[in-house]
């Protein structure tokens, strides 16, 4: 198939490269000239495991190309994927201006019948809106069809997830378009869910909201576990063995962050409001997530009393390991609270110091050297479960910290290994 992918963010780029890998001829379009010239040279602007290898391989084979020119990029394409961002508006709803400008560009440049596939996460009803927008400006007799094909890729493991996901969802009102998308996706050898347009759009939001709910559920349990002397990790393991529950996304901690769960739960709540439905469960999911950050600071102040001039070091700043993404990272709120209570805040991250500097409150002392970070601190707080933090020798934590006092917001260590470490260890939902 001849395919165009519009938008080369982590979703668009991974989609384009993987579609090329399974034998399609793909043109990726982006308005960012710098990004496009970087990609033409075989280098990826984002880090995704395995992506650059597949990119260079398919560039060499001639299966993939990059351009900023819509006329050239859309010429002769049978399928056009839309993978541009839908950031959050101040009221929580999704911003569709990038989608709208892509629709304009498609209607101005496409000259043949085409199937439009939406990868971007868009509010229910947007695919119909996309179809209407494009058709309104097209000169007949071109036929277009729209398909919703939401992605379930995790940042950092997006290539792996494309080939090993649990399902591929395609939604459309046109059975021939569904069949075409089924054929394109067949080489991935994954179960395919064929459904209507609006249900496909909803599956994406509902899936992310459900995963966020699982995290907030176990975090709420962790609070009670700490009170009654139970171990939340053992509770999650026991619960997760029930296949109806499943063991994934039951890892208690300082809460979820990133560009997806916070944005998508907000967007669902905003959609609910449009229909006068309050979404009380999702509001609680967000509330518990917010409480987790505050709870971490409470744990520290309960143990240390006044934080005036106490040096507290945050270990890991990103919303999860193996990314430099700081969007909605729990470390931001924790740093704000610590500063408010008078602490001197140091912050360590192995890769994200440049991006952290743009969003963390001031004054925070940054370092990408773990030893330097721990040196002389009154307490250390693990915020992200980076391998560098998990594999740093416990004797070094003991030697470098003043007390030594370690708060673990991601339950990186077992209680057994901490027992004789000589470190005072506080974690989430487990006995001290
Ligand atoms: C999430 C979903 O997992 C993907 O399926 C989805 O495609 C993507 O959003 C999206 O909508 O684009 P992502 O945001 O990359 O992916 O990150 P996750 O690996 O899901 O982690 C999200 C947050 O939840 C992180 O802050 C992580 O630390 C936290 N988390 C995750 C927990 O606190 N506990 C867990 O058990 C799992």
UniProtKB/TrEMBL annotation:
SUPFAM superfamilies per record: 6-phosphogluconate dehydrogenase C-terminal domain-like (SSF48179), NAD(P)-binding Rossmann-fold domains (SSF51735), UDP-glucose/GDP-mannose dehydrogenase C-terminal domain (SSF52413)
Binding-site residues, NAD(+): 30, 35, 86, 121, 263, 327
Location of the active site: 260
The reaction(s) this protein catalyses: UDP-alpha-D-glucose + 2 NAD(+) + H2O = UDP-alpha-D-glucuronate + 2 NADH + 3 H(+)
GO biological process assignments: polysaccharide biosynthetic process; UDP-glucuronate biosynthetic process
Residues of the UDP-glucose/GDP-mannose dehydrogenase C-terminal domain: 313-415
SMART domains: UDPG_MGDP_dh_C
InterPro entries linked to this entry: 6-PGluconate_DH-like_C_sf, NAD(P)-bd_dom_sf, UDP-Glc/GDP-Man, UDP-Glc/GDP-Man_DH_C, UDP-Glc/GDP-Man_DH_C_sf, UDP-Glc/GDP-Man_DH_dimer, UDP-Glc/GDP-Man_DH_N, UDPglc_DH_bac
Keywords from the named record: NAD, Oxidoreductase
GO molecular function, one term: NAD binding
Pathway: Nucleotide-sugar biosynthesis; UDP-alpha-D-glucuronate biosynthesis; UDP-alpha-D-glucuronate from UDP-alpha-D-glucose: step 1/1
EC number of this enzyme: 1.1.1.22
Keyword NAD: yes
Ligand binding (substrate): 204, 249-253, 257, 320
Gene3D superfamilies from the UniProt entry: Cytochrome c1, transmembrane anchor, C-terminal (1.20.5.100), NAD(P)-binding Rossmann-like Domain (3.40.50.720)
UniProt keyword annotation of NAD present: yes
Family: Belongs to the UDP-glucose/GDP-mannose dehydrogenase family.
Record protein name field: UDP-glucose 6-dehydrogenase
Organism: Sediminibacillus albus
